[in-house]
Amino acid sequence: AVSQAALSAAVEALGDRWSFYLTPEQLEAYLDASSNQYAGFGVLVAKDEATGGLAILAVYPGSGAEEAGLLAGEVILAADGEDITALSFEEAADKLTRQEGESARLLILGTDGTEREVTVKASLVVVSPVRYALLDGNVGYVAIDNFEAHAAERFIAAVEELMEQGAGMFVFDVRDNRGGRVKELVDILDYLLPEGEIFVSVSADGKEKVLTSDEKHLDVPAVVLVNARSYSAAEYFAAVLQEYKYAAVVGTRTTGKNRSQNTFLLPDGGGLHISTGEFLTPGRVSLTETGGLTPDVYVALSEEKEAALEKGALSREEDDQLLAALRLLMENS
Asked: In which element (H, E) is residue 224 found?
């Protein structure tokens, strides 16, 4: 514990908010997240205002929750006999934390108003980083939750499926996206953009490495949604599309992070996540220096809607940023 505290203090002394020490448990969770998988029951939940429990928004295929028969729309009221309805969202969610192979008895409020108790086993759940839908007006909506493992292949597959369904315009949503892997980001930009520079990395000694796109590209009208929780690769994605005049950007100012990190494994099983360089847009703009990306159309959500968006519970009809993006596409079509 002393060595972990010392390592953490040493990293804090660097004065870089993006560098940190990871305990062995945190490192394991970080590596799982970067692979778009985690150990758990396989449910997406939000606080249920009516009961105080955790409303199930989605059940992941192949998960313990699916095997136990849990359904979207049901509410979790208790875990292992402990009522969770009076707890905060974070406290209640913590009561559902289990390692792979561990189980919990959950009290479920069904959509028909009846209660039942089920035993759910935690397993390794694979989560897709991309969600998509065909909206009215033949607009394809593609949300990229992160740029971690499989993001590019899932993004490209989503866009092509939506085009087969008739989509001729797109909204790309990177709100609440904390970034991810350079390769996933570059593969998506290469798919969308014509020949040219798409990624500029700068090492600690100031040397540039430039990655380029080939001439094959996707020529469709598009808008990108961003917010203050769009970090790193997410804001870079929007900035490059803006610079290429490929897509307008709608939302609020992004975080402002252009630092790249490497994770170094330590003998104690933990790791050091340390900034080792930076990246610039093709126009050589540092998003750190500019304090983030400025959207072309500024649209803020109310605090209530921001909270709902963060939990994945904001309906499209109430999403002012999405509605503004759709209006912009229609006006320019």
From this structure: strand 222-226
